[in-house]
Every structure is written in C-alpha cells, then in structure tokens.
Design brief:
- The protein has 2 domains: about 70 residues, no CATH class; about 70 residues, no CATH class.
- A 5-stranded antiparallel β-sheet has the order 7-8-11-12-13, with no helix packed on it. A 4-stranded antiparallel β-sheet has the order 1-2-5-6, with no helix packed on it.
- By secondary structure, the chain is mainly β.
- It is built from no helices and 15 strands.
Length: about 140
C-alpha cells in the first residue's frame, strides 16, 4: 500500500491514495510518490504539525521510504521532470477557515538545482483561461502545457 500506515491517533482520517510522481528509470527499485500526511495527536495535543502533501522516495522491494519534500498543506499535487527532480507544484486556493477552493489553479516551479519555489502560472477552470502545465522537459529546461 503506497499511502502507508495511518496512526490511530491521527487528527483526521485521510483516505487519499498516494500517487506516483516519478518512476525513476535510473533507479528501477525506487519510485517517487506524493502522499498526504495528517497531524498526529497525543492526549488531545498535536505532537506533530507536519501535515499536507509530501514527496517520498520509496524502495519498492523493501517498502522503506525517505522524505524528499516535507508535508505542505497548501499543495495539491507535484510534477517531476521524469529524471527524479520535482519541478512543479499545484497550489490550493484556500479562502478563510472554511477552505473553500476557488476555480483558479496556481502553479509554481522549482528551478533545476534550486531551493526556492517561484510563481509560474494560473489557470481558470471556469473559462479555461491561462496556462496549465502538462509536462517538464528536463533537457530543454522547459514546461510544456
């Protein structure tokens, strides 16, 4: 099971399955997955504030996982360049305490070898206006949509 075990003391029940982000052709025994982490509670107190979507490298033979990108509650999805580098993320548009999502998707990119995310584009789902990334070309260092 790619989503991994869930703690009985989790603050919420998360039924979101993990998604393969990169099949890692250079390392056939591992894959990159994105999966949601929920806060853990102990005695009613939050003991771990790491919640949200994260990227882990998972060894498919042993099931061992190591963190690539930590949990982020504002990220909806990640995209790699097909060579093990996470390059794009889709951001939730959250409003107030109700967390109603808007119909506008925001995307940001991580420059190759960089550590800070930069704005890339927006896409309005109502009128289909804007740029919606489809793939990352590592050799050309370009996003195609």
């Amino acid at each position: 099971m790619l989503s991994g075990p869930r703690s009985k003391s989790g603050q919420k029940l998360d039924l979101t399955p993990a998604e393969v982000v990169d099949w890692l052709a250079s390392d056939p025994s591992s894959i990159l997955i994105s999966r949601t982490y929920a806060s853990k509670t102990v005695g009613g107190l939050i003991s771990d504030t790491g919640k949200g979507l994260a990227v882990d490298k998972v060894n498919i033979d042993t099931g061992d996982a190591s963190g690539i990108l930590g949990p982020n509650p504002t990220v909806e999805s990640y995209m790699s360049d097909g060579h093990g580098n996470i390059r794009l993320r889709k951001i939730w548009n959250l409003e107030g305490r109700t967390y109603r999502t808007e119909k506008v998707s925001r995307f940001s990119y991580l420059p190759l070898g960089g550590s800070e995310w930069r704005p890339l584009s927006t896409f309005n789902q109502n009128d289909q206006f804007g740029f919606y990334p489809g793939t990352v070309d590592k050799e050309a260092n370009r996003v195609l949509g």
